[in-house]
Structures are given as structure tokens and as C-alpha cells.
Design a protein that fits this description.
31% of the residues lie in helices and 31% in strands. The chain is built from six helices and 15 strands. The longest helix is centred in the first third of the chain and has 19 residues. The radius of gyration is 18 Å and the shape is globular. It binds 1-O-pyrophosphono-5-O-phosphono-alpha-D-ribofuranose (PRP) and uracil.
């Protein structure tokens, strides 16, 4: 069974509260999402293996640490997942970025794929999938399945807010994928929106409604 990491650092909770407020505009919403993604990135990458390298400081030679082997890829689920990419790239500037485009059918709430472009060597990388909202879990599960079809074996899912239903579905369908969230909210409403949530993340990031 995958692990669910709820990253409840005070600064993340504080920033998330501002994002949830309905009066917060797109500019602030985007900036806060980027900042939270960077902060969450510390936890998502916490167990990356290190190796020794010999370097020379202006004073003397030393054995120092550097991240070993595991190359990273960040894969946002379009559109809203894009809002978490820059924060993670600030932390890991050499990561490659793939894109998976999915939107939810408004009636069935099932995800529909419209785009997929991934780094050629994605199967060799630790993949961090980003999407602020984990509602029914349909979009995340489809994205994870697409990555596994391409041979990915090390995948982590990084979201901002999860619903219990979505978290349970990812755990059921992808028990090998650890989930990182800043909060798990109460439930889904009749339109499969997270309650209390923060509304439609894509629309709030891009100002489309
Ligand atoms: C939102 C969100 C997730 C998905 C979550 O995307 O960004 O991708 O819904 O819902 P689920 O867990 O029930 O699948 P949306 O379909 O609204 O597309 P957008 O990001 O382009 O606005
Ligand atoms: N997508 C969103 O953007 N918000 C929700 O609450 C559910 C799905």
C-alpha cells in the first residue's frame, strides 16, 4: 500500500489558507502555488540518495555530498498541474518536464486525454506527477497508468488538496505510488468538487472564469 504524506508545515498551511479564500486573485494564487510546490518539493525529494564527490574549496580539498543517480522528471497534469512546475524546478533545475493533458467530462467527471509529451528516457527517471486537485482520482490514476505504460517504475504524486475518495482510489489502483498532499479535505460534492477545497484550480490559476 502506498503511503500518504500530509505535509502540514505551518508555512504551507498558511499559504494554502490564503489560496482557499474566494477573494484571492489569480496573481496571488499562482505565486502561492509556486511557493508551496517548492516547499513540498523538500519532502517529496527528502529520501533521494546522496553520494560522495571529491571537491576543492578555496581552503582545501574535501569529500562532499551530491545527489546520486536518480534523475528526475516532473510531469504536470494540464492545466492546473503546470502551476506547481516552476516551484519544483527552482529546487531541481536539471529536472526534465513532460506534460499530460487531461480534462474532466463535465457530466461523467471521467478524464479525457488530449495531450501527452514525455521525455524519451522517462522510464529511467524518478517521476513527480503534479496536480493541485485530487478529487475523484480519475485524472491522477489515468496519468499514472500512462506513465507506467511508458515503463516508469518510480513515481510520486504531488497534490495540494485531496479528497478522501481520490486518495483511496489512487492507493487502490496504484499501490506503488506515494501521495504527497498539503491537506485532505472532507468530501466531494455532487459535481465532484472538493469540499471545502478551493474551487476550480485551473480557472483560478489562469483566470479563465
Ligand atoms: C482538475 C484538476 C485535476 C482534476 C481532478 O482538472 O486540475 O486534473 O480536475 O479531478 P479528478 O480527481 O476528479 O480527476 P480539470 O479537468 O478541471 O482541467 P483543468 O486543469 O484544465 O482546469
Ligand atoms: N478540479 C478542481 O479544480 N477542483 C476540484 O475541487 C475538483 C476538481
Amino acid at each position: 500500500m502506498s503511503q500518504v504524506h500530509v505535509i502540514n508545515h505551518p508555512m504551507i498551511q498558511h499559504k494554502l489558507t490564503i489560496m482557499r479564500k474566494k477573494e484571492t486573485g489569480s496573481k496571488d494564487f499562482r505565486e502561492l502555488l509556486k511557493e508551496i510546490a517548492l516547499l513540498m518539493g523538500y519532502e517529496v525529494t527528502r529520501d533521494l540518495p546522496l553520494m560522495d564527490v571529491e571537491i576543492e574549496t578555496p581552503i582545501c580539498k574535501m569529500t562532499a555530498k551530491t545527489v546520486a543517480g536518480r534523475k528526475l522528471a516532473i510531469v504536470p497534469i494540464l492545466r492546473a498541474g503546470m502551476g506547481m512546475v516552476d516551484g519544483l524546478l527552482t529546487l531541481v533545475p536539471v529536472a526534465k518536464v513532460g506534460h499530460i493533458g487531461l480534462y474532466r467530462n463535465e457530466q461523467t467527471h471521467d478524464p479525457v486525454v488530449y495531450f501527452c509529451k514525455l521525455p524519451e528516457d522517462i522510464h529511467d527517471r524518478l517521476v513527480i506527477v503534479t496536480d493541485p486537485m485530487l478529487a475523484t482520482g480519475g485524472s491522477a490514476c489515468d496519468a499514472l497508468a500512462m506513465l507506467k505504460e511508458r515503463g516508469c517504475q518510480n513515481i510520486r504524486l504531488m497534490c495540494l488538496v485531496g479528497a478522501p475518495e481520490g486518495v483511496a482510489r489512487v492507493q487502490r489502483e496504484h499501490p506503488d505510488v506515494d501521495i504527497y498532499v498539503a491537506a485532505i479535505d472532507e468530501r466531494l460534492n455532487e459535481n465532484a468538487y472538493i469540499v471545502p477545497g478551493l474551487g476550480d484550480a485551473g480557472d483560478r490559476i489562469f483566470g479563465t472564469k
